[in-house]
Design the sequence.
């Protein structure tokens, strides 16, 4: 049976068995993972998966059941346990499913190229990244994790209010980790690229970028503790945006679980900062015509020239807080309940290149890599272990490692003085250029 | 789940094109997840999954394919797909299988849903009974996992695992200041893990952490002596040291410990053990996901590197004995070397003796998470509960701190090890490419110096 038909039928069964409302979400996927080491395939993994999640509302309580089994017995068992759990849950008047009203956008997010390529073609892509990186500089001694992933999936959602929609999507991710070594100094750099079609991946760009990142920090030392202007490369900006994506949820705001909770309509960043949830741009891997509750995805301005415009809402939080659902109900896998998350969070690029921004800096830091869990979405406290290089008189001079960057995210965002032009999808639906932030607290040595 | 005969057929199909090793792993998993959010019991979820993963190893190269239907014909075709990487001759499947089965578990999760809810409510009430605790979230999750693994060397082993987590998170609010608190109890143990006053204690612990941190001052920045707390502090050694002792990093020559076997890599005060045998902790498994019995492995003994954590593939490469560390998240993954419970054995100093040695320093009691580059040993940790130390006394709590450093250096810079060895009751989910539950244990530790990342410069 087709996924969408199975979803519709499951909703019918649930209603027949006593659910007031029902919603079924089905995802079928084929995934490939290829890892390469020293130009040889180290492993290849092929997954064929199909999962189904049923949510039911009965007497205002909600119950969820999930399974990988599509036989009658599994499906009936799933309906029974969802209804039973709905009976155990507290009645919550804000539980609701999407009543189809609006038209969905047509998005070209499936690329048949992903099927045309052989496993050997895909392995060659990532092997080329390794080859080009190692050839770039003799200090690139080894690689640790060279991996290529792709996925093609079918997503279907139906509910008892008449919704029945599906889409197909494909994407790929390539990851490279290079180990640079010189004397006793070792530095591991990691670069990832993603997109809709593996043919769009440039092994040259990726190999050189990963090698340059490693060589920039290799042999680095801490700088003296103090305040510095810091040029964050896209991979470092990502750490700020990961925290931001959890903080623009309307639910987190209403519950005071976001440092932005009382900032709607207020200035939270420099006027140079405009952030858009661009969930309808097919280039970005977070984009799709509707979210995981069937609500149409929109292109929405979150921060307009520094001013926080609006939070994001899934179906439950929208009803609870009297807002409209914004198409941000996202399940991290079919087995997880939807959360409020951005689709494709884009920081609008500026005009200046990395070189031009570097040229503006008298004495500061260029940070290409961060490590760890940087931001606290509740308080906005930010602290990132970082590496990169020192900038003196507009030039990159010496490698820097083992430092921390810290501050409050609102203060940091307000201190953005330049936004670069190098827009990059760094993964996880985050698309950002480099930015220069003034006056960042840097923890280093005590000299 | 599958019979010995079926396993043989699948393994023969997997090796029909050649190969050094084949394995079939079959898993059924089921469990429940409940959440209380803002006093409303919602997100009640029950789930199950069934699937098999088949792998073939040829000249160190792994082929892996999965199947979610346990029909023998489909398993055989997945086996052939996994075997596609082999290009020469036929591989050999052992003629003899020695089935191993572990005894029935002492406890499980066969209790009514309302009992699980009752424990969650008690934890919630306990947390909210504190002044200034504005909100509480309580999450409960359990799973039962039955799995059978058979391989071409003649292993045929089955086990059942039960695991649960109860997590309490709170938000403390005082004036305009907000801070969260958290506590958890997890482990490979049935529902009896939450008997007695465990739920109340979890609520209290989370509340106390948030209340303490409400009065926290901004963290200092710079280099200073650091005390790592016992119990919850053990996530530090898991990340900073444990990952570098997993044999896959070593064999790629990408660990700071590569080529250091038998050498002194740490202060003599350090004896580090991977110990899955402690009952009911967050990494306490009986058998790994390759059918090897899980056992205690001494990794660093009095400062000397003596062993590593191996899965079957890395042990075979090194000619080493199996240590029972081949773990996987589910049938969707092939196993890799993973920790279980990472334990630093106890020393002689009392907590007070350690504290009195520090004139100006930082006490990291609980971590929010950490990350390490196994190649260089460079690490970073977010500290969610930390204190500034002045003149041998805890002066005040600090917020927004992180620790960075290099683990090879930290291991040598351990100056004192406490006598207050304790397990980390909350445990964690380690995400080295796949998620598996882990835990650890340690006493209080004094490190000569580390960089504390804060805003006070």
Sequence:
């Amino acid at each position: 049976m087709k996924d969408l038909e199975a979803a519709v039928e499951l909703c019918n069964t649930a209603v027949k068995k006593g659910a007031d409302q029902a919603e079924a979400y089905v995802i079928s996927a084929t995934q490939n993972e290829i890892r390469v080491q020293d130009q040889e395939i180290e492993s290849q993994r092929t997954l064929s998966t199909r999962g189904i999640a049923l949510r039911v509302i009965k007497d205002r309580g909600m119950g969820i059941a999930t399974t990988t089994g599509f036989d009658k017995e599994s499906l009936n068992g799933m309906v029974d346990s969802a209804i039973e759990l709905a009976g155990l849950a507290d009645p919550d008047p804000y539980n609701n499913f999407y009543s189809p009203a609006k038209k969905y956008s047509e998005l070209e997010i499936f690329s048949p190229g992903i099927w045309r390529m052989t496993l050997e073609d895909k392995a060659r892509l990532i092997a080329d990244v390794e080859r080009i990186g190692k050839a770039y500089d003799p200090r690139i001694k080894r690689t640790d994790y060279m991996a290529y992933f792709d996925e093609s999936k079918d997503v279907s959602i139906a509910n008892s209010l008449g919704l029945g929609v599906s889409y197909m999507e494909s994407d790929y991710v390539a990851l490279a980790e290079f180990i640079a070594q010189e004397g006793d100094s070792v530095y591991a750099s990691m670069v990832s690229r993603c997109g809709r079609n593996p043919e769009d991946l440039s092994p040259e760009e990726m190999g050189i970028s990963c090698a340059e990142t490693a060589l920039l920090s290799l042999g680095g030392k801490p700088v003296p503790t103090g305040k510095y202007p810091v040029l964050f490369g896209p991979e470092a900006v990502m750490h700020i945006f990961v925290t931001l994506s959890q903080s623009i949820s309307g639910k987190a705001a209403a519950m005071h679980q976001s440092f932005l909770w009382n900032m709607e309509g207020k200035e939270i960043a420099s006027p140079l900062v405009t952030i858009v949830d661009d969930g309808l741009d097919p280039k970005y891997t977070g984009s799709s015509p509707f979210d995981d509750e069937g609500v149409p995805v929109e292109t929405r301005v979150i921060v307009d020239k520094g001013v926080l415009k609006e939070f994001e809402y899934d179906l439950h939080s929208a009803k609870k807080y009297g807002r409209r659902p914004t198409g941000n109900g996202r399940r991290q896998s079919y087995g997880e309940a939807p959360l409020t998350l951005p689709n494709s969070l884009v920081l609008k690029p500026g005009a200046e290149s990395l070189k031009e921004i570097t040229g503006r800096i008298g004495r500061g830091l260029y940070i290409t890599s961060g490590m760890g869990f940087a931001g606290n979405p509740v308080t906005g406290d930010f602290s990132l272990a970082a590496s990169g290089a020192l900038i003196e008189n507009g030039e990159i001079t010496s490698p820097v490692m083992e430092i921390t960057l810290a501050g409050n995210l609102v203060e940091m965002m307000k201190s953005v003085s330049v936004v670069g032009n190098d827009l990059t999808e760094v993964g996880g639906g985050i698309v950002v250029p480099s930015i220069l932030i003034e006056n960042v607290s840097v923890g280093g040595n005590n000299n | 789940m599958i019979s010995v005969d079926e396993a043989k057929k699948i393994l023969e199909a997997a090796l029909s094109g050649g190969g050094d090793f084949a394995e079939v792993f079959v898993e059924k998993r089921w469990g429940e997840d409940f959440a209380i959010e803002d006093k409303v019991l919602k997100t009640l979820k029950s789930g199950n999954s069934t699937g098999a993963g088949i792998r073939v190893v040829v000249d160190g190269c792994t082929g892996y394919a999965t199947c979610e239907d346990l029909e023998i014909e489909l398993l055989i075709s997945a086996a052939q797909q996994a075997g596609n990487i082999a290009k020469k001759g036929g591989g050999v499947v052992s003629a003899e299988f020695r089935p191993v089965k572990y005894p029935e578990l002492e406890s499980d999760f066969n209790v009514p849903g309302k009992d699980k809810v009752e424990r969650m409510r008690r934890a919630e009430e306990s947390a909210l009974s504190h002044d200034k605790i504005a909100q509480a979230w309580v999450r409960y999750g359990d799973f039962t996992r039955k799995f059978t693994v058979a391989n071409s060397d003649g292993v045929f082993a089955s086990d059942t695992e039960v695991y649960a987590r109860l997590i309490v998170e709170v938000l403390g609010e005082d004036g305009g200041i907000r801070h969260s608190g958290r506590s958890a109890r997890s482990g490979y143990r049935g529902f009896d893990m939450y008997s007695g006053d465990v739920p109340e204690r979890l609520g209290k612990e989370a509340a106390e952490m948030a209340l303490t941190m409400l009065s926290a001052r901004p963290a200092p920045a710079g280099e200073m002596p650091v005390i790592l707390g016992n119990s919850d502090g053990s996530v530090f050694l898991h990340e900073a040291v444990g990952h570098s002792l997993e044999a896959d990093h070593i064999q790629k020559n990408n660990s700071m410990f590569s080529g250091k076997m038998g050498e002194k890599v740490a202060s003599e005060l350090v004896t580090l053990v991977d110990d899955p045998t402690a009952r009911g902790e967050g990494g306490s498994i009986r058998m790994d996901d390759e059918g090897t019995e899980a056992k205690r492995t001494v990794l660093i003994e009095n400062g000397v590197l003596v062993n590593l954590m191996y899965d079957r593939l890395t042990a075979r490469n090194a000619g080493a004995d199996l240590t029972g560390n081949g773990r996987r998240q589910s049938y969707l993954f092939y196993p890799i070397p993973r920790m279980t419970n990472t334990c630093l054995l106890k020393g002689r100093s009392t907590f007070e003796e350690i504290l009195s040695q520090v004139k100006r320093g930082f006490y990291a009691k609980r971590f929010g998470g950490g990350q390490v580059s196994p190649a260089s040993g460079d690490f970073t940790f977010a500290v969610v509960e930390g204190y500034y130390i002045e003149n041998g006394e805890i002066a005040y709590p600090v917020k927004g701190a992180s620790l960075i450093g290099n683990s090879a250096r930290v291991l040598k810079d351990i100056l004192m090890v406490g006598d207050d060895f304790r397990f980390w009751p909350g445990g964690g989910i380690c995400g080295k490419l796949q998620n598996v539950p882990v835990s650890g244990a340690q006493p209080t530790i004094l490190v000569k110096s580390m960089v504390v990342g804060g805003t006070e410069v």
DSSP finds ten helices and 20 strands in chain A. Chain A touches chain B through 75 residues (CB under 8 Å). Chain A has two domains: 3-210, 220-447. The first strand of chain A starts at residue 21 and ends at 37.
